[in-house]
Amino acid sequence: MKSSAVKRSIVVGGHKTSVSLEEAFWSGMKEISGARSMTLSRLVSEIDANRNEGNNLSSAIRQFVLNHFKGLASSGRASHAQGLAESPNG
User: Fold this and answer.
1) First and final CA of the chain: distance in angstroms?
2) DSSP label at 55?
3) Measured between alpha carbons, how far is 74 from 90 in angstroms, rounded to an integer?
4) Which of 10, 15, 58, 67 is the 20 to 30 A CA-CA neighbour of 25?
């Protein structure tokens, strides 16, 4: 079975390395780096610097992207719930 992961080269901390991620994670990384006005390489360097020692870089990136979007979803639900509570019809 062929993996859906796409291998790309990226500079991390001044060193070129390759990372294999599914396209959805690459897209998520681009969205996050754009929202933070930073390069993809800089964002990956930050993830690399903060990852747990047992995790490989690809896993750390997946966890970062997942946690980022889970956080957005949670804050969206909280905002939605607050809006309902404040609504006269809520």
Assistant:
1) 50
2) S
3) 20
4) 15
Residue owning tokens 């997942």: 66
pTM of the entire structure? 0.78
CATH number at residue 39: 1.10.3990.20
Please, what's the b/e burial string for 16-31 (b: 16 or more CB within 10 A of its CB; e: otherwise)? eeebebeeebbebbee
Give the structural domain span for 63.
5-86
Residue matched to tokens 């998520």: 28
pLDDT in tens, the chain (90 residues): 566 899 999 998 888 999 999 999 999 999 999 999 999 999 999 999 999 888 899 999 999 999 999 998 888 765 545 555 555 554
Structural domain tally of the chain? 1
Q: Dihedral through CA 22, CA 24, CA 28, CA 31, nearest 10?
A: 120
Residues in the chain: 90
